[in-house]
Amino acid sequence: GETFNVFSLCGVDHYEIWHSKILAEFLNPRGMHGQTDAAFLKAFFKIINNKINKKSEDCLFDEWTYVRSEESAKLGELNIGRFDVYLENYKKKVICVIENKIFAGEQPTQLERYSNWLEDKEGYTTYLIFLTLDGHESSTINDKKKYIQLAYKNDILPWLQECRQIACDKPFVRETLGQYQYHLEKIINGGQIMDEKIVKLLNNGTNLK
Q1: Which residue of 3, 8, 48, 73 has the lowest C-beta tally within 10 Å?
Q2: Is 11 left (phi over 0), alpha (psi -120 to 50) or beta?
Q3: Is the pTM here over 0.90, yes or no?
């Protein structure tokens, strides 16, 4: 019974839209997890601030009133695309956009478009997050300083573990976080095994073509 996993059962697997919905729910201070003090969101921003060597600030975390997945955006008449996860704090004027990639590649100029949209938000503090399994760089934006790289392996898994500790007295939430953590570990390890198989095949000259 220890290997039972509801996320595997529901076919979440590598589909980014489902991972984005799950992340948005955990990050939402008004999510069904019931952590109304926004503890999960605070823990997430602690990771972000550590990445950019920024001192943690009180961003009125409980007042991040808009947290959505698959949020459409436009810049004038230009369709920018859909943000995988979008967070906004109206009072403090802070926006965070997460582009979530499991195995799929980026769309042309994707992060550049998102960065331009955020730069147009005058008076806002903005964060553009590029989230991948291993934390690799984006290939669709020229200035690497315009976004923050996060990895499921080195950033999201530890964050989920911290969230489990925060929710230690909420068994439903704690065990759901644990199941999602275990599910991600399987996806990450599966990707690494596939990479190793591909490299092994390519090392054989006859398979290179």
Answers
A1: 3
A2: left
A3: no
